[in-house]
Amino acid sequence: MAQDLLSQIDSPVDLRRFRESELLILAQELRAFIIAAVAAKEGHLGASLGVVELTIALHYVFDTPQDLLVWDVGHQAYGHKILTGRRDVFHTNRELGGISGFPKRSESEYDTFGVGHSSTAISAALGMAMASQLKAESRKHIAVVGDASIASGMAFEALNHAGVSSADLLVILNDNAIGIDPAVGALKDYLTKTKSGKETGRDNIFESLNFDYSGPIDGHDLPALIKELERQKTLDGPRLLHVRTTKGKGLKQAELDQVRYHAPGKFDKITGDIPAKDDSKLPPKFQDVFGHTLVELAQQNERIVGITPAMPTGSSMKIMMDAYPDRAFDVGIAEQHAVTLAAGMATQGLIPFCNIYSTFLQRAYDQVIHDVALQKLPVVFCLDRAGLVGQDGATHHGAFDLAFLNCIPDLTIAAPMDAIELRDMMYTAQLGLGFPIAIRYPRGRGHLMDWQRPFSKLEIGQSRLLTTGNRIVVISIGTIGVMVQELIETEKLEVTHVDLRFLKPLDKSQLDEVFENHDHVITIEDGTMVGGMGSAVGDYAFAKAYKGSIHKLGLPDSFIEQGPTSDLQQIAEIDRGTLLSLIKSL
Ligand SMILES: Cc1ncc(C[n+]2csc(CCOP(=O)(O)OP(=O)(O)O)c2C)c(N)n1
Ligand SMILES: CC(=O)[C@@H](O)[C@H](O)COP(=O)(O)O
Ligand SMILES: [Mg+2]
């Protein structure tokens, strides 16, 4: 790039020295930098490309970090990171020991709020604005939130509150008409139709909530953005600036196929092409086993419906949506609603398969307890991305589901070891259980090529004895059992292995037997050790006055950062080497 302005920017202070004409060149450089970095190292692409001009304009006009800028989700904040002192370490984005893929308070004073889950920015920025008022500090507070994220309940709650506050809060609605998948819902229709605030007057939804609404303006017109932000800077109180952008802006393929280029993996930085991969010789991803199995079951059972909160592609619910458009629903980023919607459907005899990433179910905890379990409604929760997820890091690991679900009465909790078990659990779940069940499985692929076997009904709460040894028993839950079994077989260990299958109800008769015949119990899981499967087995052993030793392997009581899942397993000591050493030491 001829001028290389980007390399002159170590902080937004440097940026503010540029002339507006130079900022246009800088936008090109920043875009090229993001494309090159993500092409080589993977990560979120489309969202950051769409806000290049907005990011430059915000740091140019506002006095960051004195003025507080909050990004929603944070997957669009790559430009922000690069302009705020992290250009030279950006090649470590999402790597083990590198910078996080999301804004993170411990990483930079410009990262005012840690994000990863959506729809928090307005609440957080409002909280900051109210704190500034109380402390009589003069600063601006800006929340940048996407069109899909603003449709979430939490964002509405924040708008509702902000509208009756006098807080100095500027909400920038970054409207690109898409989330990860095409945006859904009535608000999307409304936003698409919105013309200028002046034309719609008090009919404008944000004005009705007491916000000073401006826009929509072109989010790629840098001079216009700067002008408007300069104006906004002189204002006070709750205001919303509606900015229209194009996700993937500046890379043709990313603009044309916005879903694929949300996080495309490695690609050619010049052509944008994603290298063709032949996946036909690989075992399927668990999400695809879920999607195809759901369609198979739906063919046989017309009471089955599918629900996803904004993750049709990631969860493969899309397979069901394509096969049965009238029976599968993307409800937008609305985990709480998704769970209670499923509960409502279940009251009327439907069998909802509600697929939610483990980490995002955290948002709907009360709904699982109050709306589903307490009423014993037969909702089938399929919890994808359970366990460690890799590069998304601490905000996204599905570390807590086993622990937070196990204390809920009347909820069955299952975790398949492989694709066949996943299918059989889904099959069993729709046979008219009369109670809710959560089936959790991880990100990525299983290990079985031959997985599309005829269904078998599983006994709820019954484990599977995989090997019989003596003295030592390893109890695993979920896919980590594959590693355990492979270790036992390759090392020819005389160790008993129980694939627990169900955390709840616990297979007490199997546990009684292994306590009776073994001196040492090892539990291993890819969830937190605090309150997880090991705790449940330990509690039962205590109740039975088991005299042997119990060794718990699981995620520690600390947040685990990003990195390749296999590295994180080693760090968390739930890997093959750790298990082998432990077995040998016993
Ligand atoms: C609570 C929660 N649910 C789901 C997600 C997964 N997710 C990440 S980005 C995204 C779409 C966001 O769309 P939008 O707000 O329009 O931002 P854009 O990607 O278009 O910039 C979703 C569903 C999440 N991060 N948090
Ligand atoms: C930012 C966000 O929350 C999603 O984009 C998430 O990174 C998707 O994760 P998967 O890649 O596991 O679908
Ligand atoms: Mg969007």
Automatic annotation (TrEMBL):
Keyword Magnesium: yes
Cofactors demanded by this protein: Mg(2+); thiamine diphosphate
EC number: 2.2.1.7
Gene Ontology biological-process annotations: isopentenyl diphosphate biosynthetic process, methylerythritol 4-phosphate pathway; terpenoid biosynthetic process; thiamine biosynthetic process
GO CC terms: cytosol
Pathway: Metabolic intermediate biosynthesis; 1-deoxy-D-xylulose 5-phosphate biosynthesis; 1-deoxy-D-xylulose 5-phosphate from D-glyceraldehyde 3-phosphate and pyruvate: step 1/1
SMART domains the record matches: Transket_pyr
Binding site for thiamine diphosphate: 75, 116-118, 148-149, 176, 335
UniProt GO molecular function: 1-deoxy-D-xylulose-5-phosphate synthase activity; magnesium ion binding; thiamine pyrophosphate binding
Keyword match Acetylation: no
Domain Transketolase-like pyrimidine-binding: 284-449
Main EC class the enzyme belongs to: transferase
Top-level division of the source organism's lineage: Bacteria
Positions of Mg(2+) binding: 147, 176
Cofactor binding note: Binds 1 Mg(2+) ion per subunit. Binds 1 thiamine pyrophosphate per subunit.
One Pfam family of this chain: DXP_synthase_N
Keywords for the protein's UniProt record, in alphabetical order: Isoprene biosynthesis, Magnesium, Metal-binding, Thiamine biosynthesis, Thiamine pyrophosphate, Transferase
Catalytic activity from the UniProt record: D-glyceraldehyde 3-phosphate + pyruvate + H(+) = 1-deoxy-D-xylulose 5-phosphate + CO2
Subunit structure: Homodimer.
Function: Catalyzes the acyloin condensation reaction between C atoms 2 and 3 of pyruvate and glyceraldehyde 3-phosphate to yield 1-deoxy-D-xylulose-5-phosphate (DXP).
Family statement: Belongs to the transketolase family. DXPS subfamily.
Protein name (record): 1-deoxy-D-xylulose-5-phosphate synthase
Species of origin: Nonlabens agnitus
